[in-house]
Structures are given as structure tokens and as C-alpha cells.
From TrEMBL:
Coiled-coil ranges per UniProt: none
Family named by the database record: Belongs to the enoyl-CoA hydratase/isomerase family.
UniProt name for this protein: Enoyl-CoA hydratase family protein
Length: 257
């Protein structure tokens, strides 16, 4: 549809979700939020999809919430009330999600970047937790951002609202890498290919594992982790992977080149 703000395409096991609202810097308007959420549902339930790439058109990845829609609305009518669902969909997606940034992200846009498993940007991309500068709090996005950032950087950047570049975003844990624009698609493809080598069920379980609270000591968690490991060693997927290793071939879940 010509008037859609989010495009969804699947090629070779990769679902590409593209934010396409450049007139307002891909701000999280009601329509964009709805279409983005619908696209994430499609990717999650499609067995043909192995990896999701979240990207954008225009010079800006995402400017955060649509402030025009927020103006004059009461607390119960603010669009931010719908945003946790999107962050949760990204964070808990059974398919790994790669964020591709060819431009800046602000506020809620950074929350989405942090909710993705892998994030790659061009060096020119900039970031800012600009909420405090307009008198609001980066509350919702803190739940995906703070697990990524080191504590000193989080305090500085949340409280000052200062702009920082992609190099620093890598240093503090927000991005995995920053590469020149001409190498951006190649870097994304490298991560997508690596992620697609993993078993679909194993990837989903590993994502869940990474989000679990850590036990106080290793011994407190060994029983649960042993059960999880044994289950997957004995699973159909695990047995296929073991057999493929022995036969020096790719497992049956790896997309064909």
C-alpha cells in the first residue's frame, strides 16, 4: 500500500521491516506503531523467517514518540502507553532482530535499538536521550536501554540529554559496530548469516536464557540449566545438529546459499 508507513518483506529467510515515515523522521505515530507491531507479529509466527532486520528510509532511523500527537493529550491517551508492547515484541522475539541504522536515533528510537539483539550503524549516526530536555522521563525505554549500557554512561546520558556519536555508542554497549555507509549492508548481512546458522528453537531458547535473572551463584542455577541443556541435546533439532556435525554438512535449518 502506498500510504503504509511500515513495509514488510521476506527474502531468503530474512524479514526486513522498514520504517517509512521520513516526513516526520520516522516518529512513532499511532499508524507507525500499529503497523510496526503487526509486522513484528508476522515475523514471529512465520516459520520461514529466521532473522528480522529493522531498518528505515530517510536520513533518520527514528526520532522517538510523535510529539504532535502527544501535545494536549491526557496521561491515559498518550501514545507512549502502546510503546511497551513494541519493545517487548523486539526484546522477546523468538527470531533474532538486527537493527540497521543509516542515521540518528532519539529517545524511543534508541529504546528500539536497545531492544534488538544486534545493532549496527554508520559512524555519522548520533543518539540522545532527549527526554529530560523537554520535561519528560526516559522511563519506558530504560527497561531495554539500561541492561545494555554501563552505569556511568547511563547516568551521564540520561541526565544530561547530550548527543553522542556511534563510536561512543559502541563503547558503552548500545551498538555492536559502526561501519562506513558503504559497508553497512555488508555488516548487517554478516550478522544475519551468522544468526541463521543457529537452530530456530535453540535461538529462541537462548534469547530467553539471556533475559533470565542471574542466580546468586552458579550452583543455584545448575539444576535448571542442566535440564535445559539435556532437553535440547535430545531434541529433534539437537539430534539433527549433532548428526550434521558428524556428517560434515550444514543442518537442515540453515538457509540455502
Amino acid at each position: 500500500m502506498a500510504d503504509e508507513l511500515v513495509h514488510y518483506d521476506v527474502v531468503g529467510g530474512t524479514a526486513t521491516i522498514t520504517l517509512d515515515s521520513p516526513h516526520n523522521r520516522n516518529a512513532l505515530s499511532a499508524q507507525l506503531r500499529r503497523e510496526l507491531s503487526e509486522s513484528l507479529v508476522k515475523a514471529a509466527v512465520d516459520d520461514a523467517v529466521r532473522v528480522v532486520v529493522l531498518t528505515h528510509t530517510g536520513p533518520v532511523f527514528c526520532a522517538g514518540m510523535d510529539l504532535k500527537e502527544a501535545r494536549g493529550a491526557g496521561a491515559g491517551d498518550q501514545g507512549v502507553n502502546e510503546f511497551p508492547k513494541i519493545l517487548e515484541q523486539l526484546w522477546s522475539s523468538p527470531k533474532p532482530v538486527v537493527a540497521r541504522l543509516a542515521g540518528p536515533a532519539r529517545a524511543g528510537g534508541i529504546g528500539m535499538v536497545a531492544a534488538c539483539d544486534i545493532a549496527v550503524a554508520v559512524p555519522e549516526a548520533t543518539f540522545a536521550f532527549s527526554e529530560v530536555r523537554i520535561g519528560v522521563v526516559p522511563a519506558v525505554i530504560s527497561l531495554t536501554v539500561l541492561p545494555r549500557l554501563n552505569a556511568r554512561a547511563a547516568h551521564e546520558l540520561f541526565l544530561t540529554g547530550d548527543t553522542f556519536d556511534a563510536r561512543r555508542a559502541v563503547e558503552i554497549g548500545l551498538l555492536n559496530s559502526a561501519v562506513p555507509a558503504g559497508e553497512l549492508d555488508g555488516e548487517v548481512a554478516r550478522f544475519v548469516k551468522a544468526l541463521a546458522q543457529g537452530g530456530p528453537n535453540a535461538l529462541a531458547a537462548t534469547k530467553a536464557l539471556l533475559s533470565r535473572p542471574r542466580p546468586a551463584t552458579p550452583s543455584d542455577g545448575f539444576d535448571d540449566m542442566l535440564g535445559l541443556s539435556a532437553k535440547f541435546f535430545a531434541s529433534e533439532e539437537g539430534q539433527e545438529g549433532i548428526l550434521a556435525f558428524a556428517q560434515k554438512r550444514k543442518p537442515n535449518w540453515v538457509p540455502q546459499d
